[in-house]
Amino acid sequence: MRILxxxxxGQLGQELLPQLESLGAVTGVDREALAGRKDILQLDLGHPAxxxxxxxxxxxxxxxxxxxxxxxxxxxxxxxxxxxLNQALPEQLARWAKANGSLVLHYSTDYVFPGTSxxxxxxxxxxxxxNVYGASKLAGxxxxxxxxxxxxxxxxxxxxxxxxxNFVLTMLRLAAERPSLGIVSDQLGCPTWARxxxxxxxxxxxxxxxxxxxxxxxxxxxxxxxxxxxxxxxxQSVFAVAMETGLLRKLPExxxxxxxxxxxKAERPKYSVLDVSHTxxxxxxxxxxxxxxLRQCLGELMNANS
Length: 306
Known about the structure:
By secondary structure, this protein is an alpha/beta fold. It has a domain at 2-165 and 192-226 and 273-287: NAD(P)-binding Rossmann-like Domain (Rossmann fold). It has helices at 11-20, 48-58, 72-75, 79-100, 132-147, 167-177, 194-210, 231-245, 277-283, 290-305; strands spanning 2-6, 25-30, 40-42, 62-65, 103-109, 150-156, 159-160, 180-184, 188-189, 192-193, 219-222, 229-230, 253-257. The chain has a seven-stranded parallel sheet, with helices on both faces. Helix 6 packs across helix 8 (231-245) and helix 8 packs across helix 10 (290-305).
């Protein structure tokens, strides 16, 4: 298979590259180059003409779209940019895929939901995003469905890794800089290691493209790692594992704060836990837990820094 991976230099894209290479010939593309990867093309994915030229040159059988505008608060002031990358880009990819018989794998977010549920959100629940980021990601989902292309949509949540910009790395940086931190304790979700999400993506793609059920497995799915926590709980786990691995020498004093006492430009859902049972039943997947994934992620980070 010829596979085009957008967002190849991002935290998910970097984990997807080695996974997808087991399925076919991968061409990665991103706005920024990735050290040590000469096979990643540089392209501003916000420019439709350049994207169209790339598609016609690569003519991928599968398009994995890991490119996105993920800055939740800045999106409130940069609506056009958020929608350009989160709606217009996937819409363009989907239109090309429909015209050329290709498959699109696209990632969305738990932030399409309002956070008012008292149980994990299923694929059947109605989205109602609270912020521009969530609205732009939902618009991307709608555009892909409307195109009529063969597609897989995977909603995920609270993605972290040992590179890029994410909560885990931010907490490690702040813990090294400050003796005390206030962390929001009334927003609940499921942290997801990008490595695990990439492995699940490869597994799903392999089953859909090579398995006996094929197109019957296309559609919308939820995936996040196991473990429902607040941001406060997540931070505590990060600090505990960082102490074990030697990334931190001293624990900061951590205080739980309410969302109302920690004002941010974009409103967040209070509860955005995703129900992954449909994904597990369909593809036979297991979900790693938070602590084991954090230990591996931070262990690799410690080794890289030593």
